[in-house]
Amino acid sequence: MNDLLTGFQMALNLILAADPEVLTITLTTLRITFTSVLIGTLISIPLGAAITFREFRGKKTLISIIQTLYALPTVIVGLLCYMVLSRSGPLGDLKWLFTPNGMIFGQTILIIPIMAGLTIAALQAIDPIITDTIRSLGATRLQFLKSHLREARFAIMAAIIVGFSRAISEVGTAIMIGGNIKGHTRVLTTAISLQTSMGNFNLSLALGIILLAIALIINLIMGFVQNR
Amino acid sequence: MIEIQDIVKEFDGNTVLTGVTETIQKGEIFAIIGPSGQGKTTLLRILGLLLKQTSGRILFEGKPISQISDSDPVRRRFGMVFQTPVAFKDSVYHNIALGLRYRGFSKEVIREKVMQKLEEIGLTGYENRKATTLSGGEKQRVSLARVMVTGPDVLILDEPTANLDPVSTEVIEDLIRYYNKKLGTTVILSTHDLMQGQRLADRVAVMMNGRFIQSGPIFDVFTRPCSEDVAKFIGISNVLSGKIIRKEEGMSVILVDGKEIHAIAEEPVGTQVKIAIRPEEITLHTGPDQWSSARNILFGVVEAVRPFGIISLIRVKSGDLILSVQVTWQSIKELDLKSGVQVSLSFKAPSVHIMPDENSYEC
Question: Which residues of B touch A130 (CB under 8 A)?
């Protein structure tokens, strides 16, 4: 209990003092996570919409696979991305291994299944009469899509929050592709991992509290947008 | 304006529509009535271009509109309101404006048209409300406005008031009539509510077993059903079998369950027929020797009283013949009607409607 209290106190001190190292780690985390979520959103929503509104063979199987990938272990993504991005791998020429770009690449892949899957669920939950109404009002293909996305916007926003949460909290991909290089690829989760192994529980706890605080703020903002 | 030619629709081997043929005139209100599960919704969805028929075709202003794509401009001349009132998770304003936005109208034009529709449906001042918080009746008014604001030539309504209370139903019916009269919109609606069919429609079609078994002006269908099924559906509870045994003073005498009934019938002596008598066309008296000008007077005993709110149906047995008679709640009290009471029944010869003996599916 005392450790926890000290952790809180330390977190507060680090934030108030704007500790340069903590600041760098936090900013790197935010940059990587936001970029991953942005790219993930731009891929997942059109992908989810295409899967929902197109009829093709194996559609149900594909949706099942996507749902299975919700549980994709972060270390597996880390491993696969490592192999793809390593010097001899297919994308080795990008030289993304142990860079923030590589981490964005890995996290984007990690969150696409859950964001696309939740987008599909959101669109499938729309009342069929709403779909009939949109069609019978004479919507073009694009208007049809826009109206459906608008109708499902709250559930899709929830999909984005889930993607964000998964990206900011994962450690497997970040450490395997990023390598936890100080000032370069060190993010909150990898820093916590390192500090814990070094026995600095208080600092770990402080970093954890900062991470949760960021998640809380993001959720509050999204909640505010939803209720508007 | 709309010619429906032999429309057949199958779903996974089930034939839902077995060949619907009808011509709908410009500017009329055409009601499709019939029990649930007979294909009314399927037909309307095909007319509303949401579903493709298996075979047959539909001509709109002489041109076939079967198998058209989502982006065909003809689609925008049809509007549809569905049975369950639904609203988009947006303001009432956005809900009504949607079709206009699809059509690319300017903001000013949209505002003017939406405000006008809000006034027509009696929801002025509701524009900024969340549409999902409205009552069922209000949502259905918004649904109607959402369609009518786009100025369709044809308005299709699938059981538009089936989920609404009587007051909301009246509002919707008034609006349908208003748009039909004011804008000349052709209206095609389905209903299982016979009274609604009678209140609104110029012409009506009875749908059974996936086709129209009878269609025509309201009065014709409701007074001259062409088969036992139609007669029963439109609420004629007295449908009986009989045989024409002789002609008398220009009338036919029909033997029905041992009683002679006078009716106006063209069929020759010896023909087996079905007769239908509306329960409200039969007058009931207690006590003997009630003078009546009616051709048919029968004496019998009350078998049962079935209360139907203000109106009750009384079953009277006269020999082997059983007839249902409509009596007001007031009369039941005044005449002290209950099982076993002696009564006389009278009805005019023209009240007896003659139908063919076999219950054909088309007539």
Answer: 86, 88
Residue B132, chain A, CB below 8 Å: the answer is no
Whether residue A194 has pLDDT greater than 90: yes
Question: Is A137 an 8 Å CB contact of chain B?
Answer: yes
| Residue A165: band (very low, low, confident or very high) from pLDDT cuts 50, 70, 90 | very high
Q: What is the pTM of this model?
A: 0.86
B79 and B24 inside one domain: yes
| Cα-only R_g, chain A | 20
Please check whether residue B26 lies inside any domain of the structure.
yes
Contacts of A153 in chain B (CB under 8 A): 89
Question: Closest by alpha carbon to B289, among B301, B297, B279, B277?
Answer: B297
- Tell me, yes or no, if A127 comes closer than 8 A to chain B by beta carbon: yes
- B64 in a structural domain: yes
How does residue A201 score in pLDDT terms, banded at 50, 70 and 90? confident
pLDDT at residue A1 in the model: 62
| In contact, B180 and B201? CB cutoff 8 Å | no
* Domains of chain A, start order: 22-227 (1.10.3720.10)
Please report residues of A whose CB lies closer than 8 A to that of B99: 137-138
Preferred mutation among A133, A135, A140, A226 to probe B, highest tally of B CBs within 10 A: A133
The minimum CA-CA distance between B66 and chain A, rounded to whole Å, is 15
Residue B252, by phi and psi: left (phi above 0), alpha (psi -120 to 50) or beta?
A: beta
Is B89's CB within 8 Å of A154's CB? yes
**B73/chain A closest Cα distance in angstroms:** 8
B99 and A137 within 8 Å at the Cβ level: the answer is yes
A contact test, residue of B83, B90, B102 with most A CBs within 10 A: B102
Whether the pLDDT of residue A38 is over 80: the answer is yes
Does B122 lie in the same domain as B154?
yes
Number of domains in chain B: 2
Chain A from 148 to 167: CB within 8 A of any B CB = 150-151, 153-154
| pLDDT tens per residue, range B330-339 | 888 888 888 8
Return d(Cα B295, Cα B49) in angstroms, integer. Answer: 53
Give start and end residues of each alpha helix (H) in B208-335.
218-223, 228-233, 329-335
Which residues in chain B land under pLDDT 50?
none
Joined tokens for residue A107: 């996290």
For B42-106, the DSSP string reads HHHHHHTTSS--SEEEEEETTEE-TT--TT-GGGGGEEEE-SS----SSBHHHHHHHHHHHTT--
pLDDT at residue A224 tops 90: no
Together in a domain, B199 and B251: no
Contact A129 B79 (CB under 8 A): no
List the CATH number of the domain containing B36. Answer: 3.40.50.300
> Same structural domain for residues B237 and B200?
no
Amino acid, res. A44: S
pLDDT score of A11: 80
B133 touches chain A (CB under 8 A): no
Structural domain including B145 reads: 2-223
> Domain for residue B135, yes or no?
yes
